[in-house]
From TrEMBL:
Segments forming domain Peripheral subunit-binding (PSBD): 139-174
Cofactor: (R)-lipoate
Entry keyword set: Acyltransferase, Lipoyl, Pyruvate, Transferase
Protein name per UniProt: Dihydrolipoamide acetyltransferase component of pyruvate dehydrogenase complex
PROSITE patterns: BIOTINYL_LIPOYL, LIPOYL, PSBD
Family membership: Belongs to the 2-oxoacid dehydrogenase family.
Organism of origin: Aeromicrobium tamlense
Top-level taxon in the UniProt lineage: Bacteria
Region Disordered: start-end pairs: 112-133
Alphabetized CDD domains for the sequence: lipoyl_domain
GO molecular function: acetyltransferase activity; lipoic acid binding
Length: 408
């Protein structure tokens, strides 16, 4: 964490070697009284939105960075005074100010949201003056702010029927104001991270193989498991069965989740299964740690929790670290198949196409069956076509006959 001096809170590195972040939403304004660990500001990193707590107890003297501005780690973003001489008494519990001669900071609770998040916003009296840098605030959720930025829309100009500007209102405003004009939006956050990852991936020699498979038995199993009380609260889908099949197949072809490290090839002891999740901020890949050691219901719960957190925009950097193999379901968009691109640092990624009824030859007859296409992309430095073919054949075999999982 960055050094904090004289009441100035500097943008900290919240993990994964952060170099810069965008200020998304201030939870305080000039004149507010804040307590240590009270919600202070939301920032957007390359991977997630993170809530930063206040490191001081005192009065907000100045917001040094505006919402929507991107700043580097170490940049002062807010100044908080002790509040001893000018703070206005509040009805809530008193805020203890540190002794001036000590200048000691209290310990911060870890970054990020927690269950049952509570925002504390002690307001100053109306007589408190606003700092020149503090602009008129328009209430809008982070994804709506990002949409407005992408469309070149000034949120202060968007008429709203309620207290919070909605996505529909931003889109309607954009359609009615220069819809044909070309707008340029800065590349930041998840989009920038994705672009950098794709550029890095190009340097890796990779190849892709496909197979089309009859997954009717897996579709039937999904319906049975939905009625099983052990799966209560779990979203049972062919994606979950595929995730389990991937973990089992990797036991027999460990090179598909190895890591190339110039002079060595590293073989992780367990599978860190990345689950590609489409969110309003872009594509993110949270990781299920030690996925190969989880029973199917537990694997399902872990996937559900991570995807829900990602789509809420609250996934943390450490929840996207440690991936060794990635699963992406492009079938949810009605796509039959595609060529997945390797995430940096991984040696394999499997794409699952849509599961749809197709004519299929069974014996000497053509009958309707549930069919899908699987595509695996692999790092040709650590694996050859043989290993990739065996891996893909194993995944396909398990999905075609889930009972074969007992043999792995």
């Amino acid at each position: 964490m960055s050094t904090l001096t004289s009441g100035e809170f500097r943008l900290p590195d919240v993990g994964e070697g952060l170099t810069e972040a965008e200020i998304v939403t201030w939870h305080v304004k000039v004149g507010d009284e804040v307590a240590v660990n009270a919600p202070l500001v939301d920032i957007e990193t390359a991977k997630s939105i993170v809530e930063l707590p206040s490191p001081f107890a005192g009065r907000v003297e100045e917001l040094l960075v505006s919402e929507g501005q991107t700043v580097s780690v170490g940049t002062p973003i807010v100044r908080i005074g002790s509040g001893e001489a000018t703070a206005t008494p509040v009805a809530e519990e008193p805020v203890e100010a540190p002794a001036p001669e000590e200048k000691r900071l209290e310990v911060l609770v870890g970054y990020g949201p927690s269950t049952g998040r509570r925002r504390r916003r002690n307001r100053a009296t109306p007589a408190a003056e606003s700092a020149p840098r503090a602009s008129v605030r328009v209430l809008a959720k982070p994804p709506v702010r990002k949409l407005a930025k992408d469309l070149g829309v000034d949120l202060t100009q968007v008429p709203s029927s309620g207290a919070v500007v909605t996505r529909a209102e931003v889109e309607a405003f954009a359609r009615g104001h220069g819809a044909d004009a070309v707008t340029a939006a800065p590349v930041s956050g998840v989009r920038r991270a994705t672009a950098e990852a794709m550029i890095a991936s190009v340097a890796v020699p990779q190849a892709t193989e496909w197979v089309t498979v009859d997954v009717s038995a897996s579709v039937d199993l999904v319906e049975r498991l939905k009625r099983d009380r052990r799966f209560e609260g779990v979203r049972v889908t062919t994606t979950l069965l595929t995730a389990r099949a991937v973990c089992l197949a990797l036991r027999r072809t460990p090179d598909l989740h190895a890591r190339w490290n110039e002079s060595t090839i590293e073989h992780p002891a367990s599978v860190g299964l990345g689950i590609a999740a489409a969110t309003e901020r872009g594509l993110v890949v949270p990781v299920v740690r030690e996925a190969d050691g989880l029973a199917l219901p537990d694997l399902g719960r872990a996937i559900d929790e991570l995807v829900a957190t990602a789509r809420a925009g609250r996934i943390q950097p450490d929840q996207m670290a440690g991936g060794t193999f990635t699963l992406t379901n492009i079938g949810v968009f009605g796509i039959d198949g595609g060529t997945p691109i390797l995430p940096p640092g991984q040696s394999g990624i499997l794409a699952l196409g849509q599961v749809a009824k197709r004519p299929w030859v069974v014996g000497d007859e053509v009958v309707p069956r549930w069919v899908t296409t699987l595509a695996v992309t692999f790092d040709h430095r650590v694996a050859d076509g043989e290993q990739a073919s065996r891996f893909l054949a194993d995944v396909a075999a398990i999905l075609e006959d889930p009972g074969l999982a007992l043999a792995f």
